[in-house]
Design a protein that fits this description.
CATH superfamily of the largest domain: Kelch-type beta propeller
Number of helices: 0
Number of domains: 4
Largest sheet: 7 strands, antiparallel
Structural class: mainly beta
Distance between the termini: 44 Å
Helix content: under 10%
CATH class of the largest domain: Mainly Beta
CATH topology of the largest domain: Neuraminidase
Strand content: over 45%
């Protein structure tokens, strides 16, 4: 089922305010050229709206991560945001202004520019003598023969900044003015910003001054406690090693370097455990970061209280960051040693039934007590499996190459790799969620099978199995077949074929031949339920029943 004609690189589930109506669980697709939201109105008709265009993207056609916090969605690595309640409020988290000086000739017009720092009060009003604040202004003059002419006014540059933004200033020939500053005042009308400092400086002609509000490069980004959190392992632009966790200012993901000594500050800390980060989640209200052999938890409610703890436990496997999903209040993910569940203590494996296959590159989703996970084996073949977290049963569903899952209400969507374009399918086929195909269509009848582990024919006390009683519930129209394999010879021998009748519950006797061990395969088409399997054993003292 192809979602749109354009290629898709990510899915999200968001609540959008469109036409003064909040639409819950809208399916948002990150496409090559736009971010498009699909939703239903009261008329029952599927609608769509582009909530951001290609002018916002730093690079279209790449994988993007959407992180929802408050009424906004933040997309990485492009570092742009969209207000979900007012789709006209969108823009970049970062902002940079380059202030040229001296004679400038450009298509926008010729002029002579000066960048100056002059004394002022905290509100930006000019002041005489020594003060604790300066305002940075870029003045424009007419250009006369390459020299300074008449004053024309202040040039715009401050519109992309806000009060108490933290910025990095570079380029001043007087190097004491280069560094990080918190903006005390931003005046977009008169075009100046107010900084802490004392002096009266005119920048040298021909040397530009750069003002930048930057967001760190991060491997993974999550939302927790009205902040965005991220992590980074590698080297910075200066070649310095980085192994850090970051938190944005409270309610302000534009600022990651604000350190004013208040509870709304940004926060960052270096991590001691070596190795790349492999994933991040918000679990039980706390940000948790993973390496393959380390789980890193952050405790506390504000920067002065934040505490980072590192635990030498099985983390998320490298390449399986998207396998971390919370189902029924428990976190499930793919570790290097298999699929595990994690409730805040010790990770516990749940994949014994999957055998000895080595899986990797897992992505997962969860809905209706079920954990869906798509993994790749050593030969590069992908399999879609489900784990029922209540019944503790694994099932193999398909070999469809799933790239990403997205839950919308009671439906789970799968973004799958296609031959020409990526495609979107529903995992449950319930049509209770947002259906982008023809609503109400019936699911095709599928074939299924299940197998037992190896069953020993006799026991240490020389009791042997004389009969198995298999109790099945088979509705009308369904069909079930029972086969047996002896001594792992690879040959499945048909024992029974049963079609559903008016009496849906049947009891099938099965008498295995003498062997060392055997397996049972029950297969069929349509709905069926295995109610119980009981065995009858016999030895010198008589018969016995075992369920």
């Amino acid at each position: 089922m192809l979602l749109v004609n354009d290629n898709i690189y990510g899915l999200s589930s968001l609540d959008l305010c469109l036409d003064d109506v909040i639409h819950q669980n809208a399916l948002v697709a990150v496409r090559e050229s736009t971010v498009r939201a699909f939703y239903y109105k009261d008329d029952g008709i599927l609608h769509w709206k582009d909530i951001a265009g290609s002018t916002i993207f730093a690079s279209c056609g790449t994988k993007k991560t959407g992180v929802v916090s408050g009424g906004y969605v933040y997309f990485f690595p492009d570092k742009f945001y969209v207000n979900l309640m007012d789709l006209t409020d969108l823009g970049k988290l970062e902002n940079t202004a380059t202030l040229q000086t001296g004679a400038v000739t450009s298509e926008a017009g010729n002029g002579y520019y000066e960048v100056i720092l002059e004394p002022c009060d905290i509100d930006g009003n000019p002041a005489e003598g020594e003060t604790s604040f300066v305002r940075l202004i870029r003045k424009r003059y007419t250009l006369l023969g390459g020299s300074k002419g008449d004053y024309e006014g202040n040039m715009a540059y401050a519109g992309g900044f806000s009060d108490i933004d933290t910025v990095t200033i570079s380029g001043f020939t007087d190097k004491k003015w280069n560094g990080d500053y918190t903006l005390h005042k931003v005046d977009p009308l008169n075009q100046f910003i107010v900084l802490s400092g004392s002096g009266n400086v005119t920048q040298a002609n021909g040397i530009s001054v750069k003002i930048a509000r930057l967001v760190p490069e991060m491997d993974y980004v999550i939302a927790a406690g009205n902040r965005l959190w991220g992590c980074r392992y590698g080297v910075d632009k200066y070649g310095k090693p980085i192994n850090e966790i970051y938190a944005s200012a409270l309610g302000d993901p534009k600022n990651w370097s604000r350190f004013m000594g208040v509870s709304t500050d940004s926060w960052r800390a270096s991590v001691g455990a070596c190795g790349v980060f492999t994933g991040a989640v918000c679990y039980d209200g706390k940000p948790i970061f993973f390496k393959e052999d380390t789980i890193i938890k952050i405790y506390g409610d504000y920067p002065g209280e934040f505490t980072m703890t590192e635990h030498a436990l099985r983390g998320i496997e490298n390449g399986s960051a998207k396998s971390a999903v919370v189902v029924n209040d428990v976190l499930y993910y793919k570790s290097a040693n298999g699929v595990v569940k994690y409730d805040g203590g010790i990770p516990v494996n749940i994949d014994m039934a999957l055998g000895n296959t080595r899986w990797k590159n897992a992505v997962a989703g969860g809905v209706d007590n079920r954990y869906f996970i798509s993994m790749e084996d050593s030969a590069g073949r992908r399999s879609l499996l489900t784990y029922d977290t209540v019944k503790k049963i694994w099932c193999r569903e398909d070999d469809i190459p799933v790239m990403e899952f997205c839950r919308c209400g009671k439906e789970l969507y799968m973004l799958c790799e296609g031959a020409e374009k990526n495609e979107v399918y529903t995992a449950c086929g319930s049509y209770n969620g947002l259906d982008l195909t023809n609503p109400g269509g019936a699911e095709d009848v599928i074939s299924w099978y299940c197998e037992t582990a190896e069953l020993e024919y006799d026991t240490l006390d020389h009791a042997y199995i004389t009969m198995l009683q298999i109790r099945l519930e088979i509705p009308f129209g369904s069909r079930v077949q029972i086969d047996v394999e002896y001594d792992s010879d690879g040959i499945w021998r048909r024992q029974q074929v049963i079609s559903g009748k008016k009496k849906s519950v049947v009891q099938i006797p099965l008498r295995p031949r003498r062997c060392d061990h055997f397996r049972i395969r029950i297969s069929g088409t349509g709905d069926a339920a295995i109610c119980s399997i009981a065995k009858v054993t016999e030895n010198c003292s008589g018969k016995g029943w075992h369920a």
